[in-house]
Each structure stands twice: as structure tokens, then as C-alpha cells.
Amino acid sequence: MNERTSHEAGAVAGKKSQFDVIADGRLVFSKQQEGRFPEHDEIMRALS
Asked: Among 9, 28, 31, 46, which residue has the least CB neighbours within 10 Å?
């Protein structure tokens, strides 16, 4: 992500099957809420 934004990516262990994207303390995407993994461009749009 650093190539297209100033954001850094990292991983934190969570509950089984949990996949959340959080930026600046704000939930950007939740696999549990959406029922799927995010598309790369959808995360990039949310971070820009």
C-alpha cells in the first residue's frame, strides 16, 4: 500500500475468520459485516 498511499499495512491476530481493515482507528472494512473479503481497489479508495 505504501506505493499508492502513505499508509502502512500490518496484521493483528483476531478471532477465527475475522478480517477487518482499520485506518486511523476507523473501521474501513469488515469481512464479518460484508460476508466477503475486500477488493484491493475498494480498500485503496477508502484510504484515499
From this structure: 9
- Quick: pLDDT tens for 13-35: 888 888 999 988 889 999 999 99
Alpha-carbon distances, residue 16 vs 8, 12, 20, 32, 41 (angstroms): 23, 12, 12, 11, 25
And the C-alpha cell for 42? 475498494
In the beta sheet, which residues pair with residue 29?
21
Q: In which domain, by residue range, is 26 found?
A: 1-8+16-48
Q: Computed from CA positions of residues 33, 38, 43, 45, in that sequence, does the dihedral angle turn out positive or negative?
A: negative
**Comparing C-alpha atoms, which of 13, 16, 18, 5 is closest to residue 44?**
5
